Structure formats: C-alpha cells, structure tokens
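Are you able to produce any protein sequence you like plus the matching backbone structure tokens because I've never seen that pairing?
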Amino acid sequence: MSAPAVEPGGAAIEFDRVSHTYEGSAGPTLREITLRVEPGERLGILGPNGAGKTTLVRIALGLLTASGGSVRVFGRTPTEARQARWIGYVPQRSTAEVAFPFSVRQVVGMPAAVGLRPWRRSGPGARRAVEHALMLTGCDGFADMPIGRASGGQLQRALIARALAAEPRLLVLDEPTIGIDAAGQQQFAAMLAHVQDELGVTVVIVTHDLRTIAAGCDRVACLQRTLHAHVSPEGLTPAVLAEVFRHEVEGIFGEVHIDAHRAAECTDPGHEHPADQHGHGGHAGHAHGGGGHDCGCEGHGGGGADAGKGGGRAHG
C-alpha cells in the first residue's frame, strides 16, 4: 500500500486568503487564512474551542464552501480530491462506531466495501490494503475483537486504520487524542510517525492540546479566527500561545492584557518565580495581567506572526 505520486512542487493543501462567515453570525469565523501544507509533513492546527479549526477542516474536505478565498488539495478542488479518495478523515470520536456488532477488522474494511453491491466481497487488493492498515497501526493483534470492546486508544487506532485502508494521500485527524493519557499520546505519536515513514502520507492534526502538537507534529499553525503563527513546535513562544488562547481567559475575566514570556527572560522583580518554590527552571514561561506594565496597548502588536518573535506582549 503506497500513497499516490504527488506532482513535483505541488502543495498538499493550499489555503489562499480563505475567509468564512456563517449566515446570521456577528462576525467572520475565519479571516484571511493563507497557509501551505507541504507533501509528507505533519502539521498541527492548534487553537481553543471556537477558533475556527473545524470550519477550516470542513472547507479543506469540501464539505463547506468558503465565503472568500480559495483552497486546493494536491492541485484540485477539495470536492474533487475527496471524490478521488485522496483524503482520509478521522472525525472526533463518537459512540456511533461501537454501536454495531462488528469486529475491528470489519470496521477497518468498510471503505473497501463502498460502492459494492450487496453480498459482494471486496477485491484482493482492497483486502491487502486493509491488512496493511491494521498492521501499520498496531491493530492486527486485536483485529478480531468486537469494536465495542476496544479501549479508547485501540478504537482510535482502528479509526485511523479505516481511513488508511482507502490509501489516501492526506490524513486529517480531528482531536485524535481526546481521552488518551500522556503515555498513550506518546504511543500515538510513535504510531503516526511509523505510518508516515511507511506511506509518505501528509498528516494534519487539529487539536487544542499542546501535548499532541509537541509529540506528533513537525510544524504548527496557531489559529484564532486568523492565523497567528506558522512555526515548528520548538518555535512556539509564550506570547504566541497567550494571543491564541486569550479569548478563553476573556470569557472568564472580560477583556484582558496578557504579557507572556519565559521566566528566565523576566526582568520585573515583581514577577520572579524561583525554581525552588514553583518547581520549574529557566525554560518555563509565565503570564501576568497588564497591571505590571504601563502601556496604551497600541504599540505592542500582540496579533499576527510577529507575536512569535521573542517574548513580546500580547494584548486584547
């Protein structure tokens, strides 16, 4: 089983100034998103609830038409790419998959049965693809187990195997580690790296969980209605994350000013956090309210990609 060839120089996904506003909404859900996903990379799309992550995914899948801008998936429209079965999609976990008396192998084999007449078996090539997907994701050891008895981690592996059985070029995972502990997340990242090494498939992970990004992604796009940064996980700064997640804090306290930076870079004695008291060293970051500085907020530029430079302030 191998991913189809990709045209030289072509992007896996290319968003060009994509915006979207739902009917009746007070403002845009997405605003001027320009983002290029390279073939074979693992990109994480990180943002809080309500940031527009699911809307962006639905546009990439061809399930929603953007209000403005354009999207291409391997040079085609999202609808064309989906119809060509170039996209494997694993949605957020639901109980639907475990409600029927199917084995893990039968669930993984469902894409191979699409379009077949009743009681017809899939061909040998499709069955080989199913067995390969089971092996790559580590599901071969419990392939005959009823899907309803699978643990959270086993179910997630089975759903990824099902998406891979269709031999896609692109694998999109929506909140794939919900309900999985830290050890399980590391195993998930190792499995995903193995899948990518074997198939060369492009992977996009949509999540609000920083641990998922750090464990399983080459690059990250920080999304909060607009794109705030597009960097490697090691390049994420406290300022970028503070800007992306600021609106969740504002939901509790109202409008806030957040000055987020690494503790080792803090020069204000009123904000010192000694390692012996708080259990973290110089690499830790901290955020504090705007009362510790005197500013009018216009001059610091909290939004946009510039927030990723150093430990600058991010303001509402």
Notes: Residues 41 and 202 are 5 Å apart (CA to CA). DSSP finds nine helices and twelve strands in the chain. The longest helix spans residues 182-199. The two ends are 49 Å apart (CA to CA).
